[in-house]
Specification:
Blueprint: H1 2-36, H2 39-69, H3 74-107, H4 116-138, H5 141-170, H6 176-208
Helix pairs in contact: 1-2, 1-3, 1-4, 2-3, 3-6, 4-5, 4-6, 5-6
């Protein structure tokens, strides 16, 4: 009986990794659309968002099956309940990536010096998402807490973007709507980082039984 349960937990880990990869791809495609002005890539992000939503439903069903048909011990219960919380944040990451792509498409933003720090934000958030899922699968407290700390990097980049956009706003004849679009995109990446922190905090809970609390977006 326990061996079957362990097989199902292994499947849960595999599905979470798969959902994480979809999130990483969605973020990467949104960033590519932004930094390269690639409208075709921007339009394809929505397909990844739909796949993420489908994966969320599949993992949710698996978690409920484990809870209802098995008799998980305390640590197993924490792991399953944490997975249910994590997939909510992962689904929202997909939404944020889709929102970024939509802005890029509608605003027709092209590569410029103004997008450099935003591109760095994208790479940082991909790292956070990847490592937060890795921490869950490995049940590694150190990796989870490193993800939480790394959010400072994303916040610092967001502040750099805001300062650069203030200069754009202050320039005579500057395109304020363009600056606002870039600010909104940067804010979406900042929120992706917050969701990755949420995931890492649920990893900490699954290991220790303590939820340290944080962003709930």
């Amino acid at each position: 009986m326990r061996s079957h349960f362990d097989e199902q937990l292994a499947l849960l880990n595999k599905e979470l990794i798969s959902m994480g990869v979809l999130c990483e791809n969605a973020i990467a495609m949104a960033a590519k659309a932004l930094t390269e002005g690639d409208m075709i890539t921007a339009k394809n992000v929505d397909a990844f968002d739909r796949e993420i939503e489908q994966k969320e439903r599949e993992i949710e069903a698996l978690c409920l099956k484990l809870l209802l048909l098995q008799q998980p011990v305390a640590r197993d219960l924490r792991q399953i309940s944490s997975a249910l919380k994590m997939i909510t944040d992962m689904e929202r990451i997909g939404d944020q990536a889709a929102d970024i792509a939509e802005i890029v498409t509608m605003a027709n933003i092209n590569e410029s010096d103004d997008t450099i720090h935003i591109g760095e934000m994208a790479r940082a958030t991909i790292k956070m998402v990847t490592e937060s899922i890795d921490a869950f699968v490995k049940q590694d407290l150190q990796i989870a807490r490193a993800v939480i700390d790394y959010d400072d990097v994303v916040d610092s980049l967001f502040n750099k973007v805001k300062k650069a956009l203030v200069i754009i706003f202050g320039t005579s004849g500057a395109d304020s709507e363009y600056a606002l679009d870039l600010l909104m995109i940067a804010k979406h990446f900042e929120r992706i980082g917050d969701h990755a922190v949420n995931i890492a905090e649920w990893v900490v809970f699954s290991i220790t039984g303590n939820h340290e609390g944080g962003n709930q977006l």
